[in-house]
Write a structure and sequence with these properties.
Length: 208
């Protein structure tokens, strides 16, 4: 893809032409997140069987010339012929733990079962991190966000005033809340990807 992977832009390699010294605005980041969610929604709900990617991570998100994101690398996919609500009864095409630590759902790592309600997880401290984010919302949302997000708005010539900063805080709070809803310990308690898409669109509307 023209602009390589999302990994190149989030964690640029020195002297590499992609992502070198350039940060995405919040709107660009949110658009990419929505693109990825739409791709996952297609895999889960609109193909001949539920396709569980098993390895959604920045290096597998590819960006075209307009920075529209595509989901790539289907080497670890599993196929489920159950509905999302009946995923625990699903027949999976293969067994064993597969995927990248930090991005596989915990129940998959513990028992080898995949869920189409995936979440990124850092095995040792994700619960503490989740609690840290939850307790910061909404009053202290700016304390937990990457400070470059506000600076990037100024870099791209956007007018950053009190009204915009308030809209930014509301948007960021909404995004973090989506993450919390996707975090739930068991797959049955997590929101479906289609719900996440709707909530991300609402968050974007609050910003623009």
């Amino acid at each position: 893809m023209t602009n390589g992977s999302l990994e190149n832009w989030l964690h640029p390699i020195p002297h590499h032409h992609q992502g070198n010294g350039i940060n995405f605005t919040l709107l660009q980041r949110l658009n990419i997140a929505i693109d990825v969610a739409l791709g996952v929604d297609y895999l889960h709900h609109h193909s001949h069987a539920n396709i569980i990617h098993c390895d959604i991570k920045p290096s597998n998100i590819l960006l075209d010339e307009d920075f529209v994101a595509r989901v790539g690398d289907f080497g670890l996919v599993k196929f489920s012929f159950a509905t999302a609500s009946d995923i625990n009864q699903a027949h999976l095409s293969s067994t064993g733990i597969r995927g990248t630590i930090g991005y596989i759902p915990p129940e998959y790592g513990m028992c080898g079962e995949g869920s189409d309600l995936q979440k990124a997880i850092l095995m040792d401290n994700i619960k503490d991190f989740h609690d840290y984010v939850r307790k910061a919302l909404p009053q202290r949302v700016m304390d937990i966000v990457d400070p470059r997000i506000v600076l990037d708005q100024e870099e791209y010539g956007l007018h950053v005033n009190q009204s915009y900063c308030r809209a930014l805080e509301v948007c960021l709070t909404s995004i973090f809340e989506v993450g919390i809803l996707c975090y739930k310990e068991t797959p049955a308690k997590r929101i479906d990807i289609s719900v996440a898409i709707k909530l991300l669109h609402v968050a974007r509307d609050k910003l623009v």
